[in-house]
Specification:
It holds the Pfam family ABC_tran. The chain has 9 helices and 10 strands. It has a domain at 49-63 and 93-256: Rossmann fold (3-Layer(aba) Sandwich), CATH 3.40.50.300. The strands form 2 sheets. Strands 6-7-8-3-9-10 form a 6-stranded mixed β-sheet, with helices on both faces. The radius of gyration is 18 Å and the shape is globular. Helix 7 links the parallel strand 7 and strand 8 (213-216). Helix 4 (120-130) runs parallel beside helix 6. It is α/β, with parallel strands linked by helices and 260 residues long. The protein binds adenosine-5'-triphosphate (ATP). Adenosine-5'-triphosphate is lined by residues 31-32, 38, 40, 58, 60-66.
Amino acid sequence: MGNAAEARRSVLEDRRAGEGGARTVGLTKVYGSGGTAVRALDGVTVEFPAERFTAIMGPSGAGKSTLMHCVAGLDTATSGRVFVGGTELGGLSDRALTRLRRERVGLVFQAFNLVPALSAADNITLPLTLAGRRPDREWHDLVVRVLGLGNRLRHRPAQLSGGQAQRVALARALVTRPEIVFADEPTGNLDSRTGAEVLAFLRRAVDDLGQTVAMVTHDPVAAARADAVIFLADGRVADVMRHPTAARVLDRVRDLGGRS
Ligand SMILES: Nc1ncnc2c1ncn2[C@@H]1O[C@H](COP(=O)(O)OP(=O)(O)OP(=O)(O)O)[C@@H](O)[C@H]1O
């Protein structure tokens, strides 16, 4: 076995045993009150298992973003429970929640959200810089290698293609070795070939780096790269499909009505 493979194995064996993933129990989120109240989530119990890739689909307004925001600690539940790894979010102080959000959850957005003035390398380590932490060099280098970014580190975002920019965003989400990475329509701004490449890297984050990924998408082909698809409709879980194929996902999306 080569040095690189050995390094990779030893880094992966370091994983915090028994941690990772996220889940909700009876998660309900109501925006507003009285006659104008909107029940965005209505008793959602779902699991994002550790070291798995899960897609979230559903018609517009089904509650996909709300679910992601509540599990990522960006929004608070009205009732029900949210766990990231072994930690229940409901019991955390604002300060602890901020820390959890920063260090134990990774976020990837459609619009990349890289800092234009910083190199790819500095963008990747930004979450650690903000937290006053030093990168775990071995893990950092492994992430950069698996995402194929070694020769792009000195580039600024404007000098990167869309697919490279999204890989930098993914590396930034992974560098803290979070319990879960949420990707919100990560291929929405990319052409289909580049989108497929980014999906392949999301898969590698799970298969080669042992990370946990949850992805909101409207695209059945993208969802088919996941291990399971959670379908939401009207704030509830309408279905969970394991081992999805694009054709089966498309059928289900049509059953649920409208654009997924
Ligand atoms: N901050 C808010 N205040 C009031 N209502 C909200 C707020 N955020 C979301 N909603 C409502 O909650 C419901 C679920 O919205 P959410 O954005 O989670 O859906 P979605 O499935 O992500 O939709 P899309 O695919 O269009 O992004 C919608 O009816 C929406 O209008």
